[in-house]
Amino acid sequence: MRVLSVYERYFARLIYGVFAFILFAVLALFVFFDMLSELESVQGKYTSLIAFFHVMLEAPTRIYEVLPIAVLISAIYVFSQLASQSEYTIFRVAGLNTRQALFSLFKLAVPLALATFIFGEFIGPAAEQYAQKIKLEAIGATVSSGFRSGVWVKDRDREPEEKGAGEITRFVNVQGLRPDQSITGVTIYEFDKDYRLRVIRVAKEGKYQGGQSWQLNDVNETRFIELRDGQPAANRDALAPDFRGEQVQFPNILMHSELTPQILSVLLVQPENMSTVNLFRYIRHLRDNKQDTQRYEIAFWKKVVYPLTLFVMVALALPFAYLHARAGAVGVKVFGGIMLGLSFHLSNTLFSHVGLLHTWPPIVSALVPGTLYLMIALGALRWVDRH
């Protein structure tokens, strides 16, 4: 147990030291390219300094994305060096077998997996949302979806007791979301339980008041009132209208809705960069309104599984400790590790799109890349252990 404690500390010192250097180098490279891309948006109040601050706020998300690749490259470099200097052979002669080495690497990966979880769940999403708000405030713009008509959201509610307590279905169109999370260009189509249009409500802006309540300002409301409620359709005059419309204007009204700024903040942050808590809330909202949730479920399960990929990365790196100097230079092995890490990142993205296209179960789309590379790692370990 004393020998195991010694080599574990030795591995940790080497891997963590190289990992810090590689993470800094990879992150600096991403920040450089992000800054070059962001300079195209510099104009007016959105100065180069604000653009740099915006890019730096996106850095935690970049750290979250490249952590597994940095771990893989650093571990491959360390084990290639140990193999070239025959140090790992000495550890094996001292009694270290493949299973013990793999278990020790898993223990070293636990703090890194925890750091990945913290960056992906807390630091990254908060910094990303704040970065988008700073940019929007500087350029004086609002966020909207890729559609010309804005973003559409389905919402369900119930009428007050005095109006019959029936179910209401709303289709809400929002033209933009301001940095202060107020909404602009709001159009609401409200249907009764039989999906008959009863109200069209147009508001200049809306502000969240808390308690699932929105204050709509400068409201123009068109109401459709049925003239002969309850009369059989066979007895109605086809030339006479069944409904009449009336328009009412209000300076402001309060509207109860399950929509919250957290749900609408999906406009600011991509699903892949959201926290699992916000993803879970938004998925529940979509399910309550009988809408498609697959894209967000895939993003949710990827966020859950992603910290576990650190264990796959160290398992992929261990076979390089068995390749001696005559099997190739250290630089070639590191280059192979970089290609291996990039291929994992690409396959992780690819399977998300393939799963969405073929409607695979979301958890399968999230697990397939990691499982595939884990099988490759275990197969390689079995091969080098035999040879």
From TrEMBL:
GO terms for biological process: lipopolysaccharide transport; transmembrane transport. It is found in: Cell membrane. This is Predicted permease. The keyword RNA-binding does not apply. The keyword Flavoprotein does not apply. NCBIfam families: LptG_lptG. It comes from the Bacteria. It is a multi-pass membrane protein. It comes from Cupriavidus metallidurans (strain ATCC 43123 / DSM 2839 / NBRC 102507 / CH34). The chain crosses the membrane at residues 12-33, 63-80, 101-120, 304-323, 330-351, 363-384. Pfam families: LptF_LptG. GO terms for cellular component: ATP-binding cassette (ABC) transporter complex. Keywords: Cell membrane, Membrane, Transmembrane, Transmembrane helix.
